[in-house]
Amino acid sequence: MTMTELHALLPIIVIAGISVVLMVMTAFFRHQRLASLITYGGFIAAAVLVAGQTGSGPQQATPLLIMDEYSRFFSLVILVTSLAATMLAYDYLRRSDVFKEEYYILLSLAVLGAVVLVSSNHFAAFFIGIELMSVSLFAMVGYMVQGRTRRAVTLEASVKYMILSGVSSSFLLFGIALVYADFGVLSFSGLHSLLGLHSTSSYSQIGAAMIVVGLAFKLSWVPFHMWTPDVYEGAPVPVTAFLATVSKVSVFAIIVRFFIESGAFRLEALVQALVWIAVLSMLVGNGLALLQQNIKRLLAYSSIAHLGYLMVAFIAIAGSNLANTNLAVEATAFYLVAYIVMSLIAFGIITTLSSPERAEEAETLAHFRGLFWQKPGLATAMGLALLSLAGIPLTIGFVGKFYVFAAGVAGQLWLLVGVLIVGSALGLYYYLRLIMEMCKAPDTEPAISREETPLENRVVLSALGLVLLVIGIFPNGLITTVHAAVAVLR
Amino acid sequence: MQLVWIIVCLFAGGACAGIAGRISADASRWLSLATLVVAGLLGLSLLQPSLQDPSVLIAGSDAPQGQWLHLVQAIWIPHFGIQFLLAADGISVVLILLTLFLGFIALLSAWKEIQQRVGFFYFNLLWTLAGVVGIFAALDLFLFFVFWEVMLIPMFLIISIWGHEDRHYAAMKFFIYTQASSLLLLAAMLALVFIHWQQTDSLSFSWFDLLGLDLDPGLGMVLMLGFFIAFLVKLPGVPVHNWLPDAHTQAPTPGSVILAGILLKTGAYGLLRFIIPLFPDAAAQFTPVALTLGVISILYAAKLAFAQNDIKRLIAYTSISHMGFVLIGIFSWNAIALQGAIMQMVGHGLSSAGLFALAGALQHRLHTRALDAMGGLWSSLPRLAAVAMFFAIAALGLPGLGNFVGEFLVLLGTFQVHATTAVVSALAMVVAPIYALVLLQKGFFGPPSAALAGKVDTVADFGSRELLMMGAMMLGLVILGLFPRLVTVYLQPALAGLQQLGWGG
């Protein structure tokens, strides 16, 4: 390993360092504030390192990892998201009756996995990254067991997630093995001249399909979505926030790279299957979200729908026209950022309103009734996030949806665009219902303690709200960044 | 630049009024009034053209020159070729002035009625107005779409927070109808832009660039329908008018005033500005269907209006009927019918706003909207009843008042191209007096209803604030009816330019 490779890997080493330092520290004494500060510091340091390398060209570090603009962009996104998610979690953890420091250890391990994942261009690193992230995540979902009523839900979620995650990983591994058996290569770019062109053997086709199934579980594409609502509901909110953003986004980022670099878009049957998965995701996600009374479950189904919207742009990449392809890749990257911002706000607000000391999550409509008149700041942020999720202009979600629409129309995917319209129209209903609930006259007896919002949450939520609006009105900065980041994928 | 300042002024004033509402309700009221005064003055300054030579600014476009009075152009999202492009011709200026004027009316009608969460109400009111002004001025399709949506959310909140008993249902219905149809608009808009991109290799959302595109007939029809449905929902026309009676009935008075007076006009404006110029061939082919829908709207809604007992529902159906005239006027696409359509928009804006303000005043006093529960109000509320008489006969199209000019010109223009349509639509002249007189008969003449007995002497007649508000609208209708040239002088050059883009030109 040369010095330049080491330099390129430095952010990953720093993140790994956080978990080691925290583990050693926790072995001797426990201190939540210190652990949180170490985590923040580590994420900021890694982010600064990544940002410093931006523009320095692609750097293959070992055969497993590539540091180019695309992986740097998503590493940065993941680090900033994780920083925000950790800050939002602080007060929740402080008030809950569990071992707190382990959260930071597991979280930094999951982030390490996510960063490795988005930087991989080789099946080995790909698998290591995804496993590191998933294993940390199912520990995070399950270990904060509290309260008599929540206990069963949490444990169920944890076990469900663990088993399905394990199954999907084995699909993934078997798929990789089949592709390897066919071609004898494990790097994405090595497959580019092989996959879909020499389709004499069905191994590689089945292999690619199994890889997609494995990833579909992680992305909760319909019909591989069954775990999502239960896990979202059962996990403590800060964990749900992390799960919904970082894990989804990193897996989606890598599936885009994998498909482009390995040439998997040439497998027509697979792309056709993806079209139906997209249609189902949008319809089932939005349709079932209509029926939910529990806000966490509602957001789970809504996230399924949003992953479906993303797939419209993803499938548009398969088109032959180069300009359209670029537009579609940009659309996925832009939408992922938009998705993170709005989901983090929504879950951040549920986190802020929850009372872990009473083992109560702010997940019913009653928790939000009249919020606008009692906590206008929080309600405004939530309202913005919901409007953005619904795709209303002047928010980042609208620009994202506009991008996806543009990609779909440019790729002439009329079926998908049609379903996108229907899905969005359905979506309006449940987002607006929540907004309406917030605008109703408050109950005399508030369902949640209306105490002061902690400073950390206020800072993070206002920052996110600002990002949501500013990018929604002046999207050009992010568009340029995204444009530069995806240009390396060829 | 006045265009930008009006919009900025309304947005900023709305935000300030919202914040001021946390300190005192009165501060928020006066601040909104001040905002509207400033915006109104800026609006009046629009009558003076700011462009000496429009051809310099819109070089390279096929658009007919010389009709634009104002133009503001800036780069917004270069990656998609999206500009911040505001332009106003005579049509836009007239509609913007109508918007600001009815903004005043809405503000005055809210003054006493809205007592809860006052700051937030004025925030929503002013933002709706800002969105509507933006719609009438935006000529970049993306910008148009943004304003199109921006006016929806505040309106949704106005209905769902300050509305009457069934407000949540009505607000949701309103929003889903308009939003779902506007997604069709978005998709059609994007497809149009991408066709332009394929043909010229440059991405642009500008109206000027998209004119005269060479469209495949089938595709042109599909895209035109995407636009048409979105605008028809807003207009509203049969068969997508269903949201309107609910939304109107449940909205608070100022909400109804804005909704009937201005929001419906955005749909008509869209038909006029976008559908026929952008898709002349498809629109020409589609004309028989559009005219039929217009005629059905006119007659069917008039019949339904007659059957209503809820006074606001009755007025809502008359709105649909009146907007049917606008639809056939636009699709007749000749100079007279187009002028008539816009005069009808302005006249209907004033008369329906007046009727809704009146219905609001009645509900505020009697706590009911049922015509059954009224009656005999002429003796106890003489001023209110006289005003009601005025607006009712304005709505039925009495010569000398604004609506007559509009309906007459529409029928005259339509007769030249589609005589049958004009003849059938003219039946409305028979149906309209029926519902208008039923409204007066049940509400104001005869003996007071049992529900009203004993209560009727205690309610107050119109005070000076309400008389001022109603008087302003009445004056507007009379001026419009007697001196229509004051308005048409601004419309003629703009319409002449626009007309060349359609099939007649």
Please outline the helices and strands.
The complex is a heterodimer of chains A (490) and B (505).
Chain A: H1 3-28, H2 32-53, E1 59-61, E2 65-67, H3 69-95, H4 101-119, H5 123-143, H6 148-183, H7 188-191, H8 203-219, H9 227-234, H10 237-262, H11 268-289, H12 295-316, H13 322-353, H14 365-368, H15 371-374, H16 376-390, H17 396-410, H18 414-439, H19 455-473, H20 476-486
Antiparallel strand pairs in A: 1-2
Helix pairs in contact in A: 1-2, 1-4, 2-3, 3-4, 3-10, 3-13, 3-19, 3-20, 4-5, 4-10, 5-6, 5-10, 6-8, 6-9, 8-10, 9-12, 10-13, 11-12, 11-18, 12-13, 12-17, 12-18, 13-16, 13-17, 13-19, 13-20, 16-18, 16-19, 17-19
Chain B: H1 2-20, H2 25-45, H3 54-57, E1 68-77, E2 82-89, H4 90-113, H5 118-137, H6 141-150, H7 152-162, H8 167-200, H9 207-210, H10 217-234, H11 243-250, H12 253-278, H13 280-307, H14 311-332, H15 335-366, H16 377-380, H17 382-395, H18 402-417, H19 419-425, H20 428-444, H21 464-482, H22 485-499
Antiparallel strand pairs in B: 1-2
Helix pairs in contact in B: 1-2, 1-5, 2-4, 2-5, 4-5, 4-12, 4-15, 4-21, 4-22, 5-6, 5-7, 5-12, 6-8, 7-8, 8-10, 8-11, 10-12, 10-13, 11-12, 11-14, 12-13, 12-14, 12-15, 13-14, 13-20, 14-15, 14-18, 14-20, 15-17, 15-18, 15-21, 15-22, 17-20, 17-21, 18-19, 18-21
Give start-end ranges of low-pLDDT stretches of chain B. none
Look at the structure and give the mean pLDDT of chain A. Answer: 90
- Shape descriptor of chain B reads globular
Order of strands in the sheet with most strands of chain B: 1-2
Distance between the termini of chain A: 26 Å
Assembly status: heterodimer
Proportion in β-strands of chain B: under 5%
Number of strands of chain A: 2
Class by alpha and beta content of chain A: mainly alpha
Distance between the termini of chain B: 31 Å
In round numbers, the mean pLDDT of chain B is: 87
> Would you list the SSEs of chain A in sequence order as H and E?
HHEEHHHHHHHHHHHHHHHHHH
What is the radius of gyration of chain A? Answer: 21 Å
Class derived from helix and strand content of chain B? mainly alpha
Helix content of chain A: over 70%
